[in-house]
Amino acid sequence: MRKERTLTALLLAALLLVLAACGNDKEAEGGSSSSADSGKQENVELRMMWWGSQSRHDATLKVIELFEQKNPHVKINAEYLGADGYWDKLNTLVAGGNAPDLIQLGNNYPDYVSRGTLLDITPYIGNQIDLSGFDEAIATSGKLNGSQYGVNLGSNALGIVYNTELIKKAGMEPPKEGWTWEEMEAYGKQLVDKLGKGYYAFADQSAFTHYVGNYVRENGKSLFNGTEIGFDESIAKSWFEMWDRFRKEGIIPPAEKAAAYLEIAPDNSMLVEGKIAMSIIWSNQFVAFQNAMQDELKIVPLPGGGSQKGMWIQPSQFLAIGKDSKHPEEAAQFIDFFVNDPEATAILGSDRGIPGNKSVREVLKANADPVLLKTYEYMDVAVNYAREMDQEMPNIADWDAALRNAAQKVAFGKSTYDEAAAETVKAAQDAVKKSQK
Amino acid sequence: MNVYSRRTAWLVHAFILALGLLMLYPILWLISSSFKPDSLIFSDLRLWPAEVTLDNYVTGWSGLSKVTFGRYLLNSIVLCLLTVVGNVASCSMAAYAFGRLNFSLKKVWFALMMVTIMLPHHVTIIPQYILFHKLDWIDTLGPLTLPKLLATDAFFIFLMIQFIRGLPRELDESATIDGCGPIQIYWRMILPLALPALITTAIFTFIWTWDDFFSQLLYLNSPGKYTVPLGLRLFLDSSSQSNWGPMLAMSVVSLVPSLIIFFSLQKYFVEGISTTGIKG
Amino acid sequence: MNQAAKPNRMRNYFIGLWKKNAVPYLFLLPWFLGLFVLTLGPMISSLYLSFTDYDLLSPARWAGTANYEKMLNEDARYAQSLKVTLTYVFVSVPLKLAFALAVAMLLNKGLRALHIYRTLYYIPTLLGGSVAIAVMWRQMFGADGLLNGFLYSAFGIEAPDWVSNPKYALYSIIALTVWQFGSSMIIFLAGLKQIPPELYEAAEVDGAGKARRFLSITFPMLSPVMFFNLVIQLIGSFQAFTQAFIISRGTGGPIDSTLFYTLYLYQKGFSQFEMGYASAMAWVLLIIIGFFTAIVFGTSRYWVHYGDGGRS
What angle (nearest 5°) sits at the alpha carbon of residue B233, between those of residues B231 and B239? Predict the structure, then answer.
């Protein structure tokens, strides 16, 4: 009896050991294989991380393969995922000391610069990385405090997309570029009158951070001027006032309806459902919105009419190098290949926005399908309404949450314009202050 | 066990069905959307598709240049089976000790076990990642399966404790008189009698692992090792293009294994104790 | 003589200790390994981090009790998240358990095609955090949703948008939670299966009515499982995250009306780079959950009956 018990115990213990060892046997695989191979060229292994959907993954993988063919000593391990969880994973990897060599970032890259995650790539510019084919503004868009931290992969501009079928149904002319806020409001009123109950002219985008940015810029101000916030409560107040007027006029949906839709992606959009005629989007989302609906979409610039041009060309994505990368030179080479090589850029297309390299842009535009062509044509128009961009507000996620709250409080009649304006300004100040600690 | 009379049975059926339809609605939406072209999924929300297409299934299944969706399914199945075995074995052992045996510091350990499920996991993610990184286990199944073998899902320990404590103690006593030690009692009596709890554990472990996006996202880096939750998200990118159709189509496909597991295991609830019997 | 007996007594004591503990601790061995190697370390480091200023990407800096002070004194959103979560816990837990138990008892009878119904009822749970849920919820409870369509055509009532009105949004998430009752139902079903049918047969022979059978057989026999479901639902609801995340797209809106505790914790830790603060939030939540769980454990002696005769 006792013997049997001991035996079972021993067996259990042995089983555990075996199982624990099982988990271990893949350890060797993870190790770096960067041992020198006799000659001068060391074998190099890089890790690259990006987010995207199917077509982007396919294209990026092909480009990696192409680069590996041309540089047989470099191997690039791709770690790609959807947009969900990308930042969580990236943050965890960085916190865990396991950051990839090549990192795709969005316009939030200053948050990573200020926390010391990215390598200063200034030394590689003009050497491994050639940005001479880029427009000046695009080439320097990865610069912060005099150092370059990333290379722009694509640019964007805000635009108003409109559903041509709804406008036809209302028997109206499509909106024209160069319109003012007043014209836009009048247009909206007429549109809802003709379309009748259940339809709205615009989405409620009073909580869209960069739309606010456009508005304050038209009035000669900025969200962030590089050291502190560049707008005040009075302008924030007039913003909330204006949207509330739109709401009362019925040209945007009532608070309840609007709150059910974030209107930032096609799966959660009244524009796509055909209930509203116009909405602000980033130009690189145009194809996605168009593919999600049958009515034809077109795009025009944002309303103007202030003392200055409000719009700007927004660098939307960057490729950067992790600070602890062991092979920054090869990584820099890859970045150059990614943005300049004719073959590579042809494969990548315009999926990450309009490329910065002028000759690449021309080739892609010539080969664009009709939907994509509209994006290219729009960018040419948008440039005329744009001026130099301001530096992105640090910790913009903090401000984004606060702005949404303030805007919704106004919408639901839970706060006055003054309160909402004060809240918005305070939140922006806090976000900036946090980055300067 | 009492059985309904025929008339009440009909009424009960009708009621269950009506309620069931409410349960079914999202899955019907999912299935119907998976046959719609992208341009109709969110613009025409009606259940009956105006246009039917199989494209979503074809593109979804073909996956990305090197890896098909079948690979993700296979990876997920392997992972889920490992976690099921790990959880059932290790949690039932711990539960037997807590539920039936006497030992020093029992209350302290039990309390500590409960505390481990009270801390939101978001704040232990990073320290845990650092730990597995130090062990050099990133991009292996280790971080996803080893914790299960070591009974870190206290939820299931607690579940089985409650079931084991529900079994009459006289059974153990008579077994002890027959000369069985604790190990035999565990193996020959407790495990068979706690079968409903073991099956519950198996079902939940399978389904929760099948759906668990975040830890698989963190610990798996090579696309060849990706699992279903990661594969589904590869279709989506809210900042530009999303392939909703293929995503929904593969969501439907990925429900099938969970449904099979659930459907085939749940019959043990029906048989449960009555067929396993109390053989003593 | 005394001196000789002492080591002997010591020895006997240790032998006794060994005899009592060897086998139980052997059974607990995997769990101990997991606890000490995998679970406790990360828990303790999160406790340490809660006293630091930690932005994930650069090293943590000691901050004393600053996080805790800010949380309890200054942060209005924190207070809001606590309020939302407490409301959620105290409304959703009883509702969900009652519903799950009722359906489990309904499905535990000798009806035909039961396995199909059981699967049917588990489907909402299977879908978990799928996008289909968010879309469906809007279609059911939105301004132009099925429910309002019914209310309007049947009673002429123009009802609000249940999903996105700040007054009702939390309750629509509670409804969603109750609707995903599958897991609790399964546990109840498994528990019901463990009750020997002979007990009911004997009671029926004794002429016991339905209510009586429930009170004297089902309830006591099922009480360990009820206790489990109660404790687990309590802990789980305090940590509720997924439902709020999919319905509000992680915003907790409108106007923070669905800002659950862990949703805010996640926003702080991962999107706003304040992991120190998030860790402090987590430990305060642990204390809150611990408090309520202890109360439930305290009451268990009065209503939970174990087959082993124990009562706690």
Answer: 145
